[in-house]
Batch of 3 targets.
Target 1
Amino acid sequence: MQALYAQLLVGLINGSFYALLSLGLAVIFGMLNIINFAHGALYMMGAFVAYFLLNLGGINYWWALLLAPIIVGIFGMILERTMLQWLTGLDHLYGLLLTFGIALIVQGVFQNYFGSSGLPYAIPDQLRGGMNLGFMFLPIYRGWVVVFSLAVCLATWFLIEKTQLGAYLRAATENPTLVRAFGINVPRMITLTYGLGVGLAALAGVLSAPINQVRPLMGADLIIVVFAVVVIGGMGSIMGSIITGFALGVIEGLTKYFYPEASNTVVFVLMVLVLLVKPTGLTGRAA
Amino acid sequence: MRRIISTMLLGTAIALAGASAAMAQDKTIKIGVLTDNSGLYADLGGPGSTLAAQMAIEDSGLTAKGWKVDLVSADHQNKPDIGTAIARQWIDVEKVDVFMDVLNSGVALAVNNVVKEKNSILIDTGAATSDLTNAQCSPNTIHWVYDTYMLANSTGQALVKAGGDTWYFLTADYAFGHALERDTTAVVLKSGGKVIGTVKHPLNTADFSSFLLQAQASKAKIVGMANAGGDTTNTIKQAAEFGIVSGGQKLAGLLLFITDVHALGLKVAQGLNFTETFYWDLNDGTRAFSKRFSERMKNKAMPSMVQAGVYSGLLHYFKALEAMGGNPHDGAKVVAKMKEMPTDDALFGKGTIRADGRKLHPAYLFEVKKPEESKGPWDYYKLIGTTAADQAFRPLSESVCPLVKK
């Protein structure tokens, strides 16, 4: 029974990465209608930026949490301005192909210079060690990841669903021409939204740097699962993707305990089941 | 008149037949490096293996002696089906004579079959499974660098002797992990230890915390990592986080490469014990080669034992061809010649190749240095034990390979 608690908690930790990443994907899909396959590569860039900040600039983890999302976010906005914006109104497939291509190029470049086994990034001193919860040894850093990412997820949800700015954004997706008629600069807003989604990916990258190796393929391995999360949660649903992210982390964690061989397929089995029963995803509305 | 013409025709035919016989034994060689160029094993084989092959060609001086040597490389993406498809194309269409590297035991066992069927040559320097020279042994295959039996024998035995008599395995769920776990279990049991449990994780897993918690709960003294590459580095890193080592359990890296230690950093990797058959800083010969190698690598990495094996294996292959006076393009014949000749090169020293295809050389037990003991980049290992060549690998008396005459 104790082992079960531990597995639940560990699942929650992984779930927080899924939640952060699928949230960014949901924001981008919801607002821009782009299936952002470059998300994994941008997540990886977040981790690499944190590594460079530390090793070249001597800038610590805490600043990296702030700076890496901004730097990668700006990179994302440049992508949006120079490439993605031309795909507005075209079939989803074009956006998917373009972002997939971008992901391959970015990963290829990083792999060329840094190899595949990755680079070390240490846990910041303040978050070292762990505490004994009785049923398991919880590394403080992992606890921090859960709390921090939950806070970021809720803040993003609040920003989009409950504020004036969020209302503009949602309106702009529904009917860009009308919103523009009110004097709102819709293209700029879309660029910033893409930047926000990308920033969330980079933030997840920084959070994962001390846990995993900073590797060029760290995003490629994760992104497929995250897409499944988004599909299960319902494309474009903000709260749906947060909840599904955490929930699937837990389910995967339990699978690792009861039947480890299936742990990297369980998410996809669930995806198939959900699609069969409710093709719009658990919280999605019919298009 | 008719007779003269027919005689002439006969003569031409004989001459042509003679020419084609001479064609069969020529001075062309085509080498194929089949490896993981982009995935989790790319640093320990990958482009570095192709570079090692290139260096072997240059150092052999064959081109100056009138040989024509070609080199091709491909990425099998750790998938046996892709590996065999490339192997068939290389043999049938591109006329590749010898396969080098072929890391990933799953791919290696599959390619091993194709190579045998088509009478080509596999000098495997990357795969670990000891089945390549046991149940699956082939007259066309030489297993050059290391295998699961040797790793288990050296690291496993040393750890049990040092008091680690209860084991829990974290095993990569494919041919390699299974073989390594099986061979290590045998050694642990034979040395008087006990295996408490095992958990099999999918290849290329990012998060090991669930598995590590299970290992922790087992209270085994040794957590044996029967995985490799990125899987091992992630396990070690996360084990530190979950306090496995500080809680009194010991991690056993059953297969660790220098590129893994480099990726982890000494702070995390210090104190780990594991076995390799090559280290760049062993002697003058290894240092000279490694320095040249590292200068030509994009990330200035030192060679792994897999890459060193590609160089060493090719040099021996070239020697055999030279001794035969040409390339007969007959896999089994060349491999037989290679087994006849003793091996000798700067990287692995003097050695032999056994009837079952097992290349013999000493195995070294290393410990990763503490950060303060390291004198500079890539100065990572302390040598703490050596197993002689004739002791390191599975004895022929235990072999089930049909090539071994009993």
Note: The two ends of chain B are 63 Å apart (CA to CA).
Target 2
Amino acid sequence: MRQKLTRVIGGVAMLALVAGGAACSSGGEETASGDKCGNKIAFFGALTGSSAALGINENNGVKLAVDKYNKENADCKVELVELDSQGSPDQAPGLAQKAIDDTKILGIVGPAYSGESEAAGPLFNEAGLPTITASATNPTLAQQGWKTFFRAVGNDLSQGPAAGNYIKNVIKADRVFVIDDQSAYGAGLSQEVQKVLGSAVVGTDKVQGEGKQTEFSAVVTKVKAANVKAVFYGGYYQEAGLIRKQLTAAGVTAPLVAGDGVNDGAYITSAGAAAAEGTILTCPCQPATEARGTFIEEFKALNGVDPGTYSDTAYDAANILLAGIKDGKTTREGLLEFVKGYSGEGVAASYKFVEGGELDPAQVKVWAFKVTGGKVVPDQEIPKS
Amino acid sequence: MNFDDLFSNFAQYTTTGLTQGAIYALVALGYTLVYGVLRLINFAHSEVFIAGAFAAIWTWNGFGLDQNSQVSGVGSILFYLLVAMIVAAIASAGTATVIERVAYRPLRKRNAPPLAFLITAIGASIAISEAFGVYTRRLPEGAPILVSTKPLFHVFGAPIDAVQLLTVGAALAMMVALDMFVNRSRVGRGIRAVAQDANTAALMGVNKDRIILIVFIAGGTMAGVAGLLYDVRIQTLTYSVGFLLGLKAFTAAVLGGIGNLRGALVGGLLLGVIENYASGLFGSQWKDFAAFAVLVVLLMFRPTGLLGESLGRARA
């Protein structure tokens, strides 16, 4: 009996492994679209997993937009489909295919991150399904020639110089140490920062991202020896939190400056509130609390939480798609043309897309946020030059 | 290459490297013990470590301590450390026991080929790690700041703090205890006997299954203490950190001579400082390259590692 039980447990474990690998389903058959009603838009991003915080912020914004639209157009509603990518580039293509197969889905808000955008972009392009991302900031995404890619925020090329300017003009640091995680995002961002700071950069080092490194004593030793006034980190929040914690433990008090990849509450969990205090985080977005009109109250009423980073941008992106559907653009081709020619005001910014689907540079705002009292709070808008 | 940086901070690279190396060494003991007795690489040992590390953090959470808590008073610090250490050791030893019972013993009874052991080991490792991942929603969990990192004194310019002293001190104490247990005690004689020749040992009245279980428990206890020391030092834990740390510890065991307890210590400490020296000399992105390059070169000249395989062998 006992042996049998052991065997059963082993079998269950194996089954669980197999099931985990095969969690990929195909979309259902739908008739050709073009109907005026019963259309869908989708949100594509991480709703669970280690980097879900931003995705949930955005999805809540999209939810509000759809909710408001449906109240105003009760006779002809639009359905929201939530596609949870867990932020993983590996899962993105399968999920993208699922969205493409559902021909009622006319447009997508997302994918939220650069890695998954890179993986899913070619599929969306081929299917002619328009996507508006609210947070994928890697510059190369707009250079792939995808006709379906639109970005409702600035890219890292606008964020990097702003972070550099903040270090130079606000912190007034003449000695800076620059670290990156060797990712497309992190390395690109720190390069832009180094261009602005020039000779003020007295040392650089590269670490491993994606949770592959947790012990940073060598980097800490270098930063300490360099005796700097500020440290810039290009990368994501897990490593940033550990680096900040270990720097503080070694007695380095210089503030850490990082990009929007670190702009997440999990950074504070990882670093601990005491060490995280004073960290500067940049974002090519404005604080959700600066959003125009009644957005904040409406958001809170629907979702029960305050809007977070990119909630307002995602709301605006969804509204661009909904405006097109309202205008009678009930095919993917029609909606794509609509988004391409769109020009209008949202709660976070004004939107007009240029070459490659980039947001018109004149509309890009970059803000600095500061960790204060264990929370990320808006500090100031940074001039771009 | 930045010789300037390496030389001016040589002492600090050494001390922090030794601290990290002590944790590698403690985990390496688990690999080496099991290999010495069973000729089996227990790949699930990284998850034995993770179980202890999570158990320690959850114990502190149970006392109402999270990543933002600061504990003062030597008495209460020692109390929290000791309780967490005991819980971590029990959790790790328990995990190791379950792995042995579920993943290895049934295979051994059926004389499964070595490949089957390898796959169940990897399967157990992934299953446990994913279970922790799902349970913690793949988010990092923070440990309270129990031990101050203020420098106590300096050695050749390198600041030494209480965390480093605790990590290295506790690791060394555990290893000495284990070494004495294996080499001096009655059960230890049994372990060495099974390692030398399991069938003959059985004929002499040694209960092989019991010895194997004890070996897993001993290795698990070491990993549990390593988990606690990791929490105290890094203060943040994610479900996935076991994989790479386990790989490094396995490397340390091979570097020192797998199957050799003292080799695990030497290998762990060596790996820790090599990583740091390489980080200083070439930049941190080269640290894994350097560590494994040294391993490959060393194995070319000493295929059995620095001290050679020796658990149960007549000591060279």
Note: The longest helix of chain A spans residues 52-72.
Target 3
Amino acid sequence: MMNGPRLLVVACCLLALSHNKLLLGEEAAKPVDYLTEIKPLLAQRCTSCHGAETQKSGYRLDSAKSLIQGGDTGEAIVPGKPDESFLMHAILGTNGATRMPPKDPRLTDAEVSLIKRWIEQGAKAPEGDLPPAPAEIKNRNHWSFQPVQRHPLPKVQRSDWGRHEIDAFVLARLEAEGLTPSSEADRVTLIRRLSLDLLGLPPSPAQVQAFVADPAPDAYERLVDQLLSSPHYGERMARQWLDLARYADSNGFTRDQPRLIWKYRNWVIEAFNQNMPFDQFTIEQMAGDMLPNATPDQKIATGFHRNTLFNEEGGTDPEQFRVESVVDRVSTTGSVFLGLTIGCAQCHDHKYDPVSQREFYQLFAFLNNADEPKLEVPTPEQLAAGSLAVREELRNKVKELEAEFEKQKPEFDAELDKWAMSLTVEQRNMLPIPVMNTLNLALSMRTPENTKALVNHFRALEFVRQKFPTLQQIADLQAKEPVFVTTLVMSEREKPRETHIHIRGDFLRHGIKVTPAVPAVLPAIPTEVQQPTRLDLARWLVTPQNPLTPRVTVNRLWLKFFGRGLVETENDFGLQGSPPTHPELLDWLAAEFVANGWNLKAIQRTIVLSATYRQSSKFRTDLAEMDPLNKLYGRQSRLRLDAELIRDVALAASGLLAPVVGGPSVYPPQPAGVFDFTQDKKPWVPATGNDRYRRGMYTYLWRSSPYPAMTVFDFPDANVACTRRTRSNTPLQSLTLANDQTFVEFAQGLARRVLLEVQGDDTARVSAAFRWCFGRDPSASELQRLLKMLEEQRAAFTTESAQKIAPPNLPSSITPTEAAAWTAVARVLINLDEFITRE
Amino acid sequence: MPHEQHARMSAQDQALQATTRRHFFQQCQVGLGSVALASLMNNGANVQAATPNANQAALKTTHFPAKAKRVIYLFMAGGPSQLDLFDFKPKLQELNGQVIPESYVANKRFAFIKKDAKLLGTKRKFSKQGQAGAEMSELLPHLHKVADDLCIVKSMATDVFNHGPAKLFANTGSPQFSGRPSFGSWLTYGIGSQAEDLPGFVVLQSGPRGPRGGSALWGSGFLPTSYQGVPFRSGAEPILNLNSPQGIDATRQRQFVSAVNDLNQLRLDAMGDPEIATRIAAYEMAYRMQSSAPELMDISGETKETLELYGVEAGKPSFANNCLLARRLIEKGVRFVQLYHTDWDHHGTPGTELGKSLDERCAETDRACAALVQDLKRRGLLEDTIVMWGGEFGRTPQGEARDLVGRDHHIEAFTMWFTGGGIKTGQTIGETDEIGYNTTVDRLHIHDLHATLLHLLGIDHLKLTYRFQGRDFRLTDVHGKVFQKLLA
């Protein structure tokens, strides 16, 4: 869009030009020589940005061929037609082009006129004036683009610490700084740490007891193996992966309608539980639909890139939002697998990394050819019952009836019009959104989809069916159709879409056409692949030659176990990212990971077996001064639990947890008033029974209004890939743990447990509750403080106030005051810092 | 620019702060609101899991002296029609019913109308108000009274024409739901808040539904969630989970907080992690909020005159009520208060037309808007508080082919008004062409508006940055120029 000042500039230029024309009239006929007049001028004024070293906008002006051919915006010169030549627009700043050169001194009128005449005369140049060989790719030597290497183990002085290679690398760094590692944490801390890290659930007191008492030298290893084989391992891994996949149960934007894609979540959990190799895991999610004889599961896996948003607002351009989705898929692929901020190259060449805008759209081209359907996923029972064939038969009958109904169409249309005219405003606004949208549009403005929505709605009305019995028959048949769960998938089109560069990221402004390719700075796709597809991209991401994917993946795992990555900028391994604190260790992990067949359980086992991982997380004054951010791992980190884990540990401590793995999303209670601030009120009927007590990861996630008890603990917004959660510490979190009805319910659950399951005096009961929450026994002062609280509460509650907070349905032998006092104590426990912290 | 004035902090700074934080919490009897030892996080290069707390500032001092200390943003969701409220076009009246000349609409896209839509004159009467002769329609009789206190900008422009993206753009500077922080989040991140026991960024809502776009409009994006806007609901529990559970009175809640904090203190002694000290402070502040927030919502202490000025009916949630609450919030030191009033989307169907529907929206808001300006002024608060009014876009000079009279979404020209700290009032800025389609003079684009507002608040928009995904992000992205004419 042109603004005032620019128009003015243009006008002045045009004036200046025509003025020159008059002046130089007689010169117009004089032939311009490319080699002596044009090329030196361009070399002097343009090629520092558009030459062999740098090619901004993919354009180089150092040879006649490339000069004419143009860059990302397409052909730059139309011989004989300066007015149609992009180059002229660029040097004049006309037709929406940014004026070049962008800074003073600009080209003089004489220079502009010279170029113009050369183009007018046919832009003649010697044929052999080809671009000189391209310069070396800039920053090719950046560390993360180099192949993964195994380095020799460093020499360390201390021989009594360390269990394997990881520890050697860590110890060497600590020793170099004159620091020592911390001692091993106690066993209670270790089992709680392992259990939270690997399963996202705390150990039960019995499990703690067994581990603490296990005298075998391999007790720790066996514990790790036992945890890795738990079905909850898949849940924990999956929820972290879902952050990357930007998983949610609704479409986002303003309408934010529900979507079904939980089958994808199930797939992720299953894949981790089966320890699917990470290369296969990647390929199936990126392009499972394109694998030979793709199974339903492999298709479900492609839901990874269907978690993008979808705008259902009236008056939108579907293509605009489709393109936005593809852009997001490119960026997500970049940050999740490559650890590169490829998305930065959407509008212009990447400012720092060797990724050009053209390369962005070459990646875009891989992902631009998918249709985005729903896949029906019959259950095994449905398949066995032949449900698909049953439906086919029913549908054939419906087809016949529909043909019959065609005859009544005019009569039907008349009824529809009559009805539409009769609606009041209120009635209209009560209609389903697509129907309301249609009625709000003039006839001429309605799309076929609009009309279909309206007709379908009308056909379902009771009085219409009475009037047209055929419709009732059709409806009856349709009601008999077996219903299958659906999930969103990718499906490659037979005929690929054309992909163009979008000039400045604007999907309406097409530059040159591009074909699929990977950035030149990275290893190429094997040359025998003729026309690479999304599947080839998927395979390329996990070729052993790709130095980024394994590094990025092990780095994210390290982040999970230590609270910080070896590369701190876990989503940016480019030039602006931070270099690894332990480069040799990072490479060792990456090499091990790939050598073991991208085995996720194995590499995590290795990490948690290390002495580095097992250290105490206690703060040390010497470290606080020398390494305040714990970048050298002289101790473990204390980490506040992730949002959904806070719910999970409270569920576990309260004894209420329903440990069902997988399935559709559920609706635990949430405070009233959550949907006051959304455009549409969302359906949210709090679950009863098991679904009320499921792990946090199964909570239904509306993008426009996510579950407040999770958002407050930094649950991501699920609009773009989240590669790391922040960990804030705020009063709103305190309000949630203290007052949210669900957490009160958890406190009641814990109190009930204490009262019903623990025999003995107050000390025994307080200690038991403490162990349910923290795995350990309280210290003397902790015990004393809790007993004081208990006494206070016994005195404070009246029967009436006690009844409001006491757990329901306790035996009558327990007075309401006693039950309320224990609930108050339980509430304190689940509000403690330690409760929501992994030590 | 000296380094320390940048919002980004070095790892060393952060570490230092982390170690001094414990001291602060133990020695100083202060609320989090005034604790300026930012445990600000840089999400990128120099991250430490130092924890951000509510209301902490990233900037030690503002870049230049602040003319304004806080903002009240009256967001008219849906896109009010500037052509029926502020921008009177005689030529448009004349051409009423004619097809818009193609030169205006070549290469343009619209949400609903086609290129051949017909021009639509206004049915509203306009007059010049105040000494400066500000043009306003008859729909805003109360605003007439404060005309000279306003700076009306008729040349606003934005980039996108669908509600969700445009609202997001007005709030975050990006039309995509891609995790960008909102204005209020940037502001509280930059200069913190003076509120001792309330959030620094509060969102209020009136009208038949919440604004389209939902929580992303006041989200903190990649900034720590402590900078998110906190929605205040009407009724007895303005903040989710503010009330103690059933059966827990104030005494028992105090006992609860004391027990939690005593036990946390024991843990702090054992582990030495300053995060635990932060959590102790958070529980104290949460406890104080439990009484301060209801106090804030309780308007029974306001005079009858004040209630009438705003048009507040006791116990009835309304835009007027929210305007009064906005004043009460900024009195408590809240940095950014945003009021959404929905249903300005006047396309021309029953309930969304420029007749009765527009009358109603204006009746719901006009008196309270004017009252807010008057009330702040007489209390001396207008001097350093910015009040701004506007929607995500305006409406087209063309009418829409629907049952009733309406206009489509328009991004090339619309009107907003501003007043308060550092704003040059008593003027109308900007002009549009003869049919009100394009801005012709003093175009004020959303990015430039953001830059200008930050400037008034003492912040250089180029220097308030946050490292994310390898890049220093800012509210104005790669754009933004301070719009001098708005400044006093």
Note: Residues 90 and 546 of chain A are 39 Å apart (CA to CA).
